[in-house]
Amino acid sequence: MTEPAGTTTGTLSFGPFIVTPHQRLVTRDGVTLPLGAKAFDMLIALMSRPNEVVSKWDLMALVWPGLTVEEASLRFHIAALRKALGDGKDGARYITTLSGRGYCFVAPISQASLPAARRSAPRMELPPVKLPNRLQRMVGRNEAIVAISDKLLTSRFVTIAGPGGVGKTAVAVAIAHDLLETFSDAAHFVDLAALSDPDLVITSILLMLGLPAETDDPLPALLAHVRDKRILLILDNCEHVIAAAAPLASEIFHAAPDVHILATSREALRVEGEQVYRLAPLAVPPDGSGLTVAAAQTYPALQLFLERATAGGAQIVLDDANAAIIARICRKLDGMALAIELAAGRVEAYGLEQTAALLDERLNLLWQGQRTAPPRQKTLRATLDWSYGLLSDIERLVLRRLAVFAGHFTIDAVLEVVPDERADRSHLFDAIDSLVAKSMVAPRPIGAMMRYRLLDTTRAYLLEIEPNDAALAARHASYYRRWLEQAGSTWTATPNADERAIHFSALHNVRAALDWCFGTGGDANTAIALAAAAAPIFLAMSLLIECRRWSERALLAIAPSSRGGAEEMHIQAALGLTLMFTRGGSEAARLALSRSLAIAEARGDTPNQLQLLGRMHIFHERMGQFDTALGYAQQSLAVAGSLGDPGSTALAHSLLGVSLHLAGQHRDAMKMLEVAWQAPGTERISTIHGFDHRNRAGITLAREFWLQGRPADALQLAQQTVTEAAQMEHPITLCIALIWAVSISLWGGDLDGAEESIDQFIAHAESRSMGPYLVVGRGVKGELAIRRGDAAHGVETIRACLRELHEAGYELLTTTFNIALVQGSLALGQFEQSAGLIDDAIRLVEQSGDHLYMPELLRMKGKVLLSLPQPRAEQAEVYLMQSLGLSRRQGATAWELRAAIDLAGLFAERGQREDARRLLQSSLEGFAEDSETADIRAANVLLTTL
Question: In this structure, what are the phi and psi dihedrals at residue 379, rounded to the nearest 5 degrees?
């Protein structure tokens, strides 16, 4: 650390303060200021360059040499230094900030000498410092080290608490080394791990300080020795001798005002003066797709894994795929440093993928660590044996029972599941409190309620001790069945992803209960009820494959005598929806949805009838059976009317609005969609139907805005619906919003915007195995290729995609892809083939009912006739006029303009310039003021030539 020149043994003064650099002291009127180590280093660094600007980078390099530190840490310590000095109070000014440049010490500095009465008497020499070697590099602990160091210097007594293997000792050792200069090398490390007798705690401290332990009561001698000494005392691994270590630390703290105590323990010492710092596991990436190498390298858990694996001889090529595997390993190990190190040590022998597979199959608690590690840290089992052995009998019993919970659980769940004749309810609260205090159970607030969980390593250990408790598993399954049934009503009105997270935190427990119920010795009836009740949570999270798997298993388990009930209705509904999104318009999906609807009708279950009419509507829509889908939408309006609530009415309006939109009945569609988007009762998100119908109404309304001459409104609403869908964290809803947003970008000529949206669409479809959507994404890529001039590749791509979509029974976008095929074939000069394609497309629309596209098909028919080697201008004009007329009758202003542009070009070639001008001007008048699209620009360019 840089010091002002010539002050190695002298003192300096500024204002009312005296600074003694070699003793690392700042005093005011003889009272020592409680400055942290880094704050003192900053003061000396700034005083060494008075009236000179010290950049923040230089200051960080001086205070944290060799370390990369966040700028926030610098600002934190500068603020602490100013606060301690009273900078800014009563006109005092010592340190100024120069925005964008750095900091400057502006107070006059002078030499000072301490009065003789205040000089410290010579102190008795302590034995040489004995600290364990610090790690060559600490990963992810810089902020913790800084925070604990400052807390230690200001409060004098800090306990680092946390579960075994989290890295408490390594952090304590690093802090001790950092503070050696502060304590003039008087730092003493007392390892209590090897002690079995609590009475030996004080003996260990005496020996470390070089004092004899000859009396029956050595405490007075110890206190007398340290009373006037400035030392750092590290008490490592206090948990198993806490009954002796805690009161002894308290005695030293109160008797010796210059002794600083740093303890490590799996639970707090709980004595007066103690400050507790809970050391969290290393940060790991969240579960989910899209992790890149660059993002992965910012997480300390992954950094540690890579360093230890490489040190062990493994050669890892870090790409996105391997980063995802390492992230999965680190999540499995809960970011626990010891567990990560042990797993990383296996990579050289097993390889990365096999190591991950072994952990997925079974957490290996016996993998060996470094030879030099303490016995309790040579294996995970040894670490857990140590912690488990420190518990009372009731704590052990409750902890073993808690292993039935997978993931987070509430105290309510514990009270329902854990108690029996061996574990009374009255003891549970105390046991849970103690297990939390001893870092065996991790608390975490989710929403307004505290939830708890066991680390995966702890749970695996406990399940090996007591693997099969059928009665406990049955209570667990029954609790979560009741919880799902009670919570089921909230799925229709959960407003955002944060609130849904409260319910989703129980998902792992639901899975564990389903696994047990369907397994050997399980309970089939509870399994069926669980699967039916769990379907909404799986659909709300777009966990389609998992929902389908549980639904299929549940249907096989339903006895013939139990068919036709509410449980079969819910399970068939879930199965049909998941089959539709993962396998397209399969017969199995249709049968499941039809069966569910029939049960709802037979039971007179009107709310579920409405839900199922919605699913049948979108099923037939995706099948390309648009007239049939319209019939289901009309039925839904009647059913919603009998229910009478705003949400049901909005749902029916959404279904009917989408069908009318696809049928080309734009004016009526607009009315329905505006009600579904804006009416009271539609503002809350609902994914109980498999996706959010309000959002679907919104993106369809955006398409109507574009078609009816309001492109700016269309783009604004499309962006809003996509943003809202993304905030829901519901991939199906987001995919629906994105694919329709893509169509608006393509219609408007924004190819870059379309590509950005389709890339997001493909990524989310991949994350949930939505097979038909992946094919649709490739098809849009083909259309983009055609629009950008690569017609050959685009045509080949679309043809391949159409074959796959036909096989999957997904025909919703067949007409749009057929139009793109015609455009590509024309670009390739395949005129006869184009003529056949357009005729087939027109016949298909006449049969299926998606008349929305008929004006475009008629226009394309005219273009094909004009493109033939021997153009058929008169026939082309007939089709273009038909397109124009139909566009006007439908209210499709955008389609009208396209037909007008082609007709105007034809008129101009014949010399009918005035007719062409009037036609274009008339079509442009239908657009909102200041509208801007590729078609409008083309029309204006053509007008300038007329």
Answer: -140, 160
Contacts 24+ apart (CB under 8 A), 198-206: 198/241, 198/243, 198/244, 198/245, 199/244, 200/241, 201/241, 201/244, 201/245, 201/248, 202/244, 202/248, 205/233, 205/235, 205/248
Burial of 942 (0-12, 13-18, 19+ CB in 10 A): middle
**Cα 946 from Cα 943, distance rounded (Å):** 5
Q: Residue 317 phi/psi, 5° resolution? A: -85, 110
SS3 of residue 688 by DSSP: coil
Cβ neighbors of 716 (< 8 A, separation 6 or more) are none
Per-residue pLDDT, 502: 61
The token duo for 691 is 């996706």
Q: Tell me the two tokens of residue 276.
A: 């507790």
Q: How many residues does the chain have?
A: 946
Q: For residues 910 and 919, give the distance between their C-alpha atoms in angstroms, rounded to a whole number.
A: 15
Residue 312 burial by Cβ neighbours in a 10 Å radius (0-12, 13-18, 19+): middle
Is the model more confident about 406 or about 367? 406
Helix residue ranges, H only, 241-377:
242-255, 293-296, 300-311, 320-332, 337-344, 347-350, 352-361
- Bridge-based pairing of strands 442-446 and 11-14 is unpaired
Residue 51's nearest CA partner among 1, 12, 107 is 107
Nearest one of 512, 504, 583, 509 to 536, comparing CA atoms: 504
Q: Is the pLDDT of residue 96 over 70?
A: yes
Q: Which residue has the tokens 């007398």?
A: 224
Cα–Cα separations (whole angstroms), residue 802 to 805, 812, 828:
5, 11, 19
H or E, element range at 55? strand 54-55
Which of these, 205, 234, 208, 233, lies nearest to 219 by C-alpha position?
Answer: 205
| Token code pair at residue 205 | 């401290």
DSSP string, 514-540: HHHHHSTT--HHHHHHHHHHHHHHHHH
Phi (first) and psi of residue 123, to 5 degrees: -105, 150
Pull the structure tokens for residue 623.
């099948």
Mean of the pLDDT values across residues 430-457? 80
H or E element in which residue 265 lies: strand 259-265
Q: Which of 519, 591, 509, 587 is nearest to 553 (CA)?
A: 519
Query: What is the CA 713 to chain-centroid distance, rounded?
Result: 32
Helices 893-909 and 693-707: angle between axes, nearest 10 degrees:
30
Q: If we measure between CA atoms, which residue out of 872, 816, 826, 787 comes closest to residue 624?
A: 816
- Mapping DSSP to helix (H, G, I), strand (E, B) and coil, where does residue 815 land? helix
pLDDT range class, residue 95, cuts 50, 70, 90 = confident
**Amino acid letter, residue 220:** P
Rank 381-385, 389-393, 433-437, 589-593 by mean pLDDT and report only the highest.
Answer: 589-593
